[in-house]
Design goal:
Blueprint: H1 11-28, H2 35-48, H3 51-64, H4 69-81, H5 85-97, H6 103-108, H7 113-116, H8 121-133
Helix pairs in contact: 1-2, 2-3, 3-4, 4-5, 5-8
Amino acid sequence: MARPPQRRLSRARARDLDIEISFYEGLTKDGLIHPEALELLGDAYDERGRYVDSLRVDRQLRELNPTDPLVRYNLACSLTRTGNFELAASELEQALDLGYQDVQQLNADPDLEDLRSHPAYRRVREKLRHLKRK
């Protein structure tokens, strides 16, 4: 499984992200669930290149709100960044079933680039064709 390239951050941005991560981790520990804090934590992990941590957060968000198409889309992005293409395609299919409609974003999102070239993405393309016919 190929790992995505680490994003280049300035020292100042990396330090700021580490502070944000520490803050949001504090808000989400001890069983307290703050979905907004979890979303921000996942974004910070992602920008910092901590893709496995971002994936863990996206899975938590899916558990909290399994019918939110954007949550499923974001989980697909995390799964793609960690090389889980089959699961990523399944999450995108779920996002589409739940009403995700931003096809331009789906086709251009750099987080999904590796998935778009994977055979599992054929299912997503087929789902998109099927939805267009409805």
